[in-house]
Design a protein that fits this description.
376 residues, alpha/beta, Rossmann fold, 5-stranded mixed β-sheet, two-stranded parallel sheet, 13 helices
């Protein structure tokens, strides 16, 4: 399943080539519907009818991982609500917001962000949003389409993945598929597993939050810079930890390929993924290919997904003798809400500890890393 990295880079939209120092462009929803969008219009109407009378209650809707209250000394904000497409990016938005804004993910805690299907209550959340932040690049088109069908006309929308240079986007199509039709049809959207890309996301988030709350713009910018500085430290430690893994073990076999950007950053390539795109139960042929891949690569461990446990992976471990770890996470935050561990940093630190330990590296390199302070 190895691929030439050069074959995986594709040319994308010229809009991706922009000066990130310029004012942040956003997308707003127009009242005019495009051809083919009638089903989405109906979806929005059906979802909103029946919930208008509970609009006041809707303003208080939130998941269990709620945004902490703002510092009483901070400038007042009139109940601005930022809606985010997925849990991983919600953690980044919450950090930048620092309790000054309400932040809510459409995908609830513990749900699979890749396959979640919105419910009518999500239409209420979308309809009351002051800003929508989407990961983009097809991470979950059902969520994106649903929110766009239900947010108010004029609601600003920011797509985080627009900050990733076009030459650095990895195609999920194979090199052979790209060669056959001249371009990639789909892309790996998990940019945030690379901490440096997460930093770019955070800078874009700070600009977006400032656009709806300019009075606190300096605070958002400062918090973004604090995150970027912390990621510089994390990046160095992660690189050293992964480099401590014996070279013959320095490769990843995963259930779902959320880790290509992480692997490229730290020199630990993804050599096998049983489900490169979907989260459906693997077929017998996919299972056999995974077993052959693990045996061929002689990896001591392979990694599942925290949102898709599968008995099949235990069977693969028994068949190959490779240890299966089910707790690698690209979106579910560890620890309890309100603790330092329950953060993007906590999630990534846990992941790197798991990978390094499972593949024979030195995890003590990571002991000096500090988690962010809890927003109170």
């Amino acid at each position: 399943m190895k691929e030439n990295d050069d074959d995986k880079f594709v040319t994308l939209d010229p809009l991706m080539d922009r000066d990130f120092g310029q004012p942040l462009p956003t997308r707003t929803r127009s009242n005019e519907r495009q051809p083919g969008s009638s089903s989405r219009s109906v979806l929005g109407l059906v979802a909103i009818v029946g919930v208008v009378i509970v609009g006041a209650v809707a303003l208080g809707l939130n998941d269990d991982d709620s945004t902490p209250s703002a510092d009483p000394a901070a400038p007042a904000v009139e109940s601005k609500l930022v809606v985010v497409s997925d849990p991983a990016n919600t953690a980044l938005v919450r950090w930048v917001a620092g309790g000054l804004l309400r932040v809510q993910s459409i995908v609830p805690p513990g749900a699979n962000g890749h396959t979640y299907e919105p419910v009518p209550a999500d239409a209420v959340v979308a309809a009351t949003a002051d800003l929508y932040i989407d990961n983009g690049r097809g991470l979950n088109d059902s969520v994106t389409d649903f929110v766009r069908a239900n947010y108010r006309s004029g609601t600003p929308e920011v797509v985080l993945s627009d900050v990733i240079p076009k030459a650095e986007v990895i195609a999920t199509d194979s090199a052979e598929e790209i060669a056959s039709h001249g371009h990639a049809h789909s892309f790996n959207a998990h940019f945030w597993t690379d901490p440096i890309y997460a930093s770019r996301y955070v800078e874009r988030i700070a600009t977006a939050l400032s656009s709806i709350d300019p009075a606190n713009g300096a605070t958002y910018a400062a918090r973004a810079q604090e995150f970027v500085a912390r990621m510089t430290t994390y990046d160095s430690a992660f690189r050293a930890a992964i480099a401590s893994i014996p070279e013959e073990n320095r490769k990843l076999v995963v259930y779902h390929d959320s880790w290509s950007y992480f692997g490229r950053r730290y020199g630990i390539p993804i050599v096998g993924a049983i489900q490169p795109v979907s989260f459906s139960e693997p077929s017998a042929d996919e299972v056999r290919r995974m077993i052959d891949q693990i045996r061929s690569e002689r990896v001591p461990a392979f990694f599942g997904s925290e949102v898709f446990p599968s008995d099949v992976l235990d069977a693969i471990a028994a068949e190959t003798g490779s240890v299966y770890y089910s707790d690698l996470s690209d979106e579910e935050l560890p620890g309890a809400p309100g603790t330092p561990e329950h953060s993007y940093e906590g999630m990534m630190l846990q992941n790197v500890r798991r990978i390094t330990s499972a593949l024979g590296g030195d995890t003590t390199i990571l002991d000096s890393l500090l988690l962010p302070e809890v927003v109170s």
